Predict the 3D structure of the following.
Amino acid sequence: MSEALTAAELQERLAHSPFIRFLGLVVTEAEPAEQRVTMIAPMRPEFERIAGSGQWHGGPIAAVIDTVGDYALVMTIGRPLPTINFRVDYLRPAVNTALTVIACVRRQGRSVGVVDVDVMDAKGALVAIGRATYATA
Amino acid sequence: MSEALTAAELQERLAHSPFIRFLGLVVTEAEPAEQRVTMIAPMRPEFERIAGSGQWHGGPIAAVIDTVGDYALVMTIGRPLPTINFRVDYLRPAVNTALTVIACVRRQGRSVGVVDVDVMDAKGALVAIGRATYATA
Amino acid sequence: MSEALTAAELQERLAHSPFIRFLGLVVTEAEPAEQRVTMIAPMRPEFERIAGSGQWHGGPIAAVIDTVGDYALVMTIGRPLPTINFRVDYLRPAVNTALTVIACVRRQGRSVGVVDVDVMDAKGALVAIGRATYATA
Amino acid sequence: MSEALTAAELQERLAHSPFIRFLGLVVTEAEPAEQRVTMIAPMRPEFERIAGSGQWHGGPIAAVIDTVGDYALVMTIGRPLPTINFRVDYLRPAVNTALTVIACVRRQGRSVGVVDVDVMDAKGALVAIGRATYATA
């Protein structure tokens, strides 16, 4: 675990991907001992569900879950891992808010890793939850 | 079913959402009798996984699945439905290609609808598959 | 919440279902304030994966997740709810052990409820995790 | 593919597992060219949801999906594969009926295989659908 990437190093890695740069994720916490990362996802005009609503479309929320979940494993493994599959459940609308995204590794095995991702609005209300499996081999 | 929306009407509806406009989806088929819609999703520079790779990031693929699945129900119900949850499985990389996305309703119930979504590259190879549940009440 | 069912009442309700009786679940904790229930699932010869292995087959683990998840909502709603869908991830084999199953409600909405379920072996190792959606309307 | 197991061989393999024997699955079709297997799952008193209802509990339906999905890959790979995860969606109650279960491989990769499973009652109505990922490495 002495090799785990820091928050600043994760931030630098995110920039390698044009899509992730577009998401504009900001790493706010990287806790390798607990295999947990936290990022902020700011709202963008392109992410709006209905014109004028200020509400996040579910699509970019799913994309954020996929990405932040991956980086919970990147922190200790050191490279991006292909997503095998993931599930997202939408719990509440997210309106005029940045998202706080917390990803925790539930199991890091030799061939797959499983990560839980909680997405909250600025008031701390749970907006969506994700569960993703990545190839670690 | 006489009220089902046509491909042109679905195309017009898609434009109400800034995020879906950003996706740039083009409706190519709307079959209300089979509850199936087909759309094309063009590649955009913002969707690239790694700079210079030409590969779709999984995030926008998930967003496309969520959206096209919804419109398979919109076709007969006439309004966008909130996503309850969905799963996406990634089967192959999609590189330098538009995506063909086919969504089929498996069950349209009073409270929920379930839709399967297949995503193919320009050669017809299966890139990803989605299964989504929407609130129909 | 004053109407929440107690552990003894949940135990009594479980017996209404021949399948749940067959599972042999024992309620060990019911915490309505935290919307969390804990049950023990004993091993049965019929649940063995390979003859002589002592290992749980994944099928009964999935069935346990579906059931205990439901009862986390039953505790406060007072009646069994139809499962809309669920996902189960298998993390480790469970061998010669009873299972401890903890179900926590993540969101109880007007039309659906979402519950997370953790399954542990007798040593506390995480064996499987489930995420289930039930119809609450 | 010349090595693919026949329906009779699959039937024999099923008997190695006490749990699968308990399910009582009968292989009715094995199509290696299409990577599709069909099995019948008879009702048992232990599978009843509510006493006297004749309705299948969702738990054994999930177990059947996990098992039949696995054997769609066993047919060509020749050995049972660990389930990584699966999702089941319940579409209609199954009452006083055997289940017909059709599993189709969507992708057989080097490390994982993905299988879709449709479950029908005796009248051909769709009761539940599953999507499962197995470790093929």
Q: What stands out?
A: The first strand of chain C starts at residue 26 and ends at 31. Chain C has three helices and six strands.
